[in-house]
Amino acid sequence: MREEWDRERDVAEVKAVLGGLVEAWGRHDAEAYGALFTEDASYVTYIGTVYQGRRAIVEGHRALFAKFLKGTRLADEITDVRFLGPDVAVVGGRGDTYKGGRRPERPRKVQTYTLVRDADGSWRVAAFHNTRRKPLLEAISARFSPALAPAAGR
pLDDT tens-digit profile of 21-78? Predict the structure, then answer.
């Protein structure tokens, strides 16, 4: 842990890690993508698949890039960066995959990243969770129970 905490620098470094994920995805480089995760990272896809550990994340993405996600790009928006201390960040965001040059205006998936600072000072993703947003179900739920309306993230 650093003696003085430079929050602005850490926000920039955390955002750079997420930018690195987008860049690695764009190259379909599973090794570079996985290198941004801790050795023991957990990764939950929007369909509920759980990858445990960097190697599983790399191999899973190698297979995805070769078939189901071949030719895709990653859209990513950061909506919130919170620090639980100088070495742990929780990032909220939206994301989606797309093909071609047109990035989706509003990515359909809601994502949570937990990043930690490694012993070498680098930030890496320790946990990632991805879920598909269902706006119609959100609206129906909120209509019948207004307390269920999301306060943020619309």
Answer: 999 999 999 999 999 999 999 999 988 999 999 999 999 999 999 999 999 999 999 9
110 Cβ contact partners less than 8 Å away, ≥ 6 residues apart: 92, 93, 94, 130, 131, 132, 133, 153
Q: pTM (2 decimals)?
A: 0.86
Non-local CB neighbours of 40 within 8 Å, separated by 6+ positions: 52, 53, 54, 126
- At the topology level, CATH places domain 7-148 in Nuclear Transport Factor 2; Chain: A, (3.10.450)
Interatomic CA distance for residues 68 and 143, integer angstroms: 36
Distances (CA, A) of 89 to 9, 11, 57, 82, 123: 13, 9, 20, 6, 9
Comparing C-alpha atoms, which of 109, 50, 40 is closest to residue 74? 109
